[in-house]
UniProtKB/TrEMBL annotation:
<feature type="domain" description="YknX-like C-terminal permuted SH3-like">
    <location>
        <begin position="271"/>
        <end position="338"/>
    </location>
</feature>
<dbReference type="InterPro" id="IPR006143">
    <property type="entry name" value="RND_pump_MFP"/>
</dbReference>
<dbReference type="GO" id="GO:0015562">
    <property type="term" value="F:efflux transmembrane transporter activity"/>
</dbReference>
<dbReference type="InterPro" id="IPR058625">
    <property type="entry name" value="MdtA-like_BSH"/>
</dbReference>
<feature type="domain" description="Multidrug resistance protein MdtA-like barrel-sandwich hybrid">
    <location>
        <begin position="59"/>
        <end position="185"/>
    </location>
</feature>
<dbReference type="Pfam" id="PF25917">
    <property type="entry name" value="BSH_RND"/>
</dbReference>
<comment type="similarity">
    <text>Belongs to the membrane fusion protein (MFP) (TC 8.A.1) family.</text>
</comment>
<dbReference type="InterPro" id="IPR058624">
    <property type="entry name" value="MdtA-like_HH"/>
</dbReference>
<dbReference type="Pfam" id="PF25954">
    <property type="entry name" value="Beta-barrel_RND_2"/>
</dbReference>
<dbReference type="InterPro" id="IPR058637">
    <property type="entry name" value="YknX-like_C"/>
</dbReference>
<dbReference type="Pfam" id="PF25876">
    <property type="entry name" value="HH_MFP_RND"/>
</dbReference>
<dbReference type="Pfam" id="PF25989">
    <property type="entry name" value="YknX_C"/>
</dbReference>
<dbReference type="GO" id="GO:1990281">
    <property type="term" value="C:efflux pump complex"/>
</dbReference>
<protein>
    <submittedName>
        <fullName>RND family efflux transporter, MFP subunit</fullName>
    </submittedName>
</protein>
<dbReference type="InterPro" id="IPR058792">
    <property type="entry name" value="Beta-barrel_RND_2"/>
</dbReference>
<feature type="domain" description="Multidrug resistance protein MdtA-like alpha-helical hairpin">
    <location>
        <begin position="93"/>
        <end position="156"/>
    </location>
</feature>
<feature type="signal peptide">
    <location>
        <begin position="1"/>
        <end position="24"/>
    </location>
</feature>
């Protein structure tokens, strides 16, 4: 009987300790301290970045079409010149003499032709004599035209408005037809050649905005427009050659310059963005901890444009959501959280600048 009494007393004592322990086990774990931030509505610029090379809008190597000695050079190296202005003049004395001789021959043949024509009309001359006179007149006029063209070619004119490059000739030098004399370039507008991946093909459109920077002016951005898309894809690089025009009124941009290019593909207004530290990668997927009723809810999201400091979210979040930005490593889905910072609920919409991909 005494053994049962001791056993009953022992059970009662154990219940005193077990009941508080079980109640403690049923209590919720303490809320985890985290930092959070509201989703932000922003303007997201979708762009393709590349590198390119600048080219002159117009560029031509001026060559002489005839042989001759340089009589005068009318423009200096690096000087701007208007279309149609003389650049170089060759000695024309020989060509003038040839033209004068051919003109005299033409005048004589005109007289002979008129005489043969009059004789034929009066039935005093033969048709053969008339035809021969006419042929000689036509031949002499053709030769006169050739000499006139050669004389005109002694004056080498600017084919368009531009700037002359450095020259390698001097007055008095004898040049031959086809010799390079000087290069003329028009850089009031420059062309920009660059390549982008073929994956952008469906997004390319004539007229899209292009921004570029060059090392010579690191703090300046120059703007242009896409105007040509090569219809071929390079087999080795799988890229497409694009060409843009860039206004260059200050003539800061020069042919041959290396450029860093940003091609504007699209602009998404009121896009949802979150701080980049809010993203929790898991394998090939991306998640965020969204705070709902003071609890962390693990939410899968679809990522869009990544920029410096934030990430665009295409799917998975609403504009009113708040996400955890620090402390995710201790969280699990459904755990209570305590926000230790004070995230502003105000939605700001600010224009975004494109960033390199």
């Amino acid at each position: 009987m005494s053994n049962y009494r001791y056993f009953f007393i022992g059970l009662m004592g154990m219940s005193v300790f077990i009941t508080p322990l079980s109640q403690a086990a049923q209590q919720s774990p303490p809320a985890m301290p985290v930092e959070a931030a509201p989703v932000k509505l922003d303007t997201v610029i979708i762009d393709a970045t590349a590198v390119g090379t600048l080219k002159a809008e117009e560029s031509v190597i001026i060559r002489s079409e005839i042989d001759g000695r340089v009589q005068a050079i009318h423009v200096a190296e690096g000087q701007a010149v208007e279309k149609g202005k003389p650049l170089i003049v060759l000695d024309d004395s020989e060509y003038r003499a040839q033209l004068a001789e051919s003109s005299a021959t033409v005048n004589l043949n005109v007289l002979n032709f008129e005489r043969a024509k009059d004789m034929l009309n009066k039935n005093l001359g033969s048709r053969q004599t008339y035809d021969e006179a006419k042929a000689k007149l036509d031949e002499s006029r053709a030769r006169q035209s050739i000499y006139q063209v050669s004389l005109d070619k002694t004056r080498i004119l600017a084919p368009f408005t531009g700037i002359l490059s450095l020259k390698d000739i001097s007055e008095g030098a004898y040049i031959k037809a086809g010799d390079d004399l000087v290069t003329l370039v028009d850089i009031r507008t420059v062309k920009l050649d660059f390549r982008v991946s073929e994956r952008y093909l469906t997004q390319l459109k004539i007229g899209q905005a292009v921004n570029l920077r060059v090392d010579a002016y690191p703090n300046e951005t120059f703007s242009g427009q896409l105007y040509a898309i090569d219809p071929r894809v390079d087999e080795e690089t799988r890229t497409i050659l694009l060409r843009a025009r860039v206004k260059n009124e200050a003539q800061k941009l020069l042919p041959g310059m290396f450029a860093r290019v940003s091609l504007l593909l699209a602009v998404r207004e009121q896009a949802i963005t979150v701080p980049e530290e809010a993203i929790v990668p898991q394998g090939n997927d991306s998640f965020v901890f969204k705070i709902v009723d003071n609890k962390a809810v693990l939410t899968k999201v679809t990522i869009g444009k990544r920029r410096t400091g934030d990430v665009e979210v295409l799917e998975g979040l609403n504009a009113s959501d708040i996400v955890v930005t620090d402390g995710q490593i201790k969280l699990r889905n459904g755990v209570g959280v305590n926000i230790v910072n004070q995230p502003s609920s105000k939605q700001a919409t600010t224009p975004a600048t494109p960033s390199a991909k």
